[in-house]
Specification:
This protein has 9 helices and 10 strands. The strands form 2 sheets. The chain has a 6-stranded mixed β-sheet with strand order 6-7-8-3-9-10, sandwiched between helices. It has a 4-stranded antiparallel β-sheet with strand order 2-1-4-5, covered by helices on one side. Helix 4 crosses helix 5. The longest helix is centred in the C-terminal third of the chain and has 16 residues. The mean pLDDT is 93.
Length: 252
């Protein structure tokens, strides 16, 4: 790991009116590290991820991404976002564009690439996610899992330094989840820095370098993936994982 983290979060608070969603988060993510963020719904996981690239503005605290203080008024957040890929629960593809066009439009408009270069990059990334043969299809001709893989290819086509995944499999039918997780595993193996909000515990245990368990706006427990998931030390983490890993368990 490099000494300077890719993401450095200090004292992060986020409120919506009277409701405090994040209550003082401190977190570093280093180059090449895969960090999975787990926890119950409403714990602040997705809000934390969206604060990293300022899709949600922070109430207080600091977030440094790739050496830029994202909370500074002077930061060029649009330029920074070109280096931070994000994949959402919903695929957010342009329905009126082909798969290939979905993967080239931002390259051309934001990065200024030529049409030929943008296509070359897009096709390489579509091949990476196993969908080069669907380049001329429209999103409504694809399954949900295929659409999510296109969304990953689109993000990769911007050559990001870090990828943020916000529950990328939660909107998918169970039989389609595996194809998306396979692509994410390959990205991790290739050394991509990743922050992943997920309910896929097997993926987190097998792929993450570190797992963060959040509840009620705070980090309750963090550590190596196998330790947090297989042998959590905090009672709240134990309760959550027992519920998630044992569907027959109904108590808290």
């Amino acid at each position: 790991m490099t000494e300077q983290p890719i993401v450095a979060i200090r004292g992060l608070h986020k409120s919506y009116g009277e409701r405090e969603v994040l209550k003082g988060i401190d977190l570093d993510v280093h180059a090449g590290e895969v960090v999975c963020i787990i926890g119950p719904s409403g714990s602040g996981k997705s809000t934390l991820l969206r604060c990293v690239n300022q899709l949600e503005t922070t109430t207080s605290g600091s977030i440094n991404v790739l050496g830029e203080e994202t909370t500074d008024d002077d930061v060029d957040i649009d330029a920074l976002r070109t280096r931070v890929g994000m994949v959402f629960q919903q695929f957010n593809l342009f329905s009126n564009m082909t798969v290939l066009k979905n993967c080239t439009v931002a390259q051309r408009k934001v990065l200024g690439r030529s049409e030929a270069e943008a296509k070359e990059v897009a096709l390489k990334n579509l091949e990476h996610v196993g969908l080069a043969d669907r380049a001329n299809a429209h999103p409504n001709q694809l399954s949900g899992g295929q659409q999510q893989r296109v969304a990953i290819a689109r993000a990769l086509s911007m050559n990001p330094d870090i990828m943020l995944f916000d529950e990328p499999t939660s909107a998918l039918d169970p039989e389609l989840v595996g194809d998306v997780l396979k692509v994410m595993r390959e990205l991790a193996e290739d050394g991509m820095t990743m922050m992943v909000v997920t309910h896929e515990m097997a993926f987190a245990r097998d792929v993450a370098d570190r797992v963060i368990f959040m509840d009620d706006g705070v980090i309750v427990e963090e550590g190596p993936a196998a330790e947090v998931i297989n042998a959590p030390t905090q009672e709240r983490t134990q309760q959550f994982l027992k519920r998630v890993l044992d569907p027959t368990h109904t108590g808290e």
